Amino acid sequence: MRALRDNALSILFGAIFLIALVGQSIAGWLESNERLLEHDQPAESFGSFVTSSEFIVDVAENWQSEFLQFFLFIAATIWLVQRGSPESKKPGDEGTGSDEEQLVGDHTRPDSPAWARTGGIRQVIYSNSLLLVMGAVFALSWFAQSLAGTVVMNSENAQHGEPPITWLEYVATPDFWNRTLQNWQSEFLAVGAMIALSMFLRQRGSAESKPVGAPHHQSAVESE
Amino acid sequence: MADFTPEEEGELAGEAVVFWSWITVLAGGLAYMIILPLMGR
Fold it and tell me: How far is A6 from chain B (nearest CA, A)?
């Protein structure tokens, strides 16, 4: 099947995303019911669990950190380089590039996207569209994490006879920042390690690696 | 390596399907994760 092969990378990650999400929902539901039974409360249905803020806060805190990771990676690699890393442009190539390099305006090709050909605001938006969308998904999933976290905390407060807190009060709590920063630190570690390790290590055949015989000082092949 | 479409054949419908499927997953997931907590679930 040509269509399957042409799109295999997206299909694989879409499939394993769904499998992992279903697995997370089942494991989370079982764990939640164990806790309810320990407190002599009735178990809840699977449908009730997956529509609860308890499930949503766990999903959202991971979403926001992944999209922050790519947002920062895309933005930082415009202006900063790591000599020898295939994840980086080569030193001297920092910046947004000329219209000729970026194939915009008078330098478009017959098959260039329409918004690369037009000037003005549409070209500005399209020139930054990947960063804008990744940033929007980060901001909205972080917002979702804060909303769901507020509901979860207020549910726990109610069980302990404590008054509810507002969303603004929740985003200043250690719970919100613990959930946030525990995800951020692992994303930043992984991106930094990928940038640094790929200077000297190789994976033959991977688009994320330099060719095996490429010298250690060579950055991204396409920026040569 | 025979059964794939060379880049020279241009953009195909399959790529647009993949792109819009991912946009739908992201938009649907975000809407779900924002609306339910706002409803107090």
Answer: 6
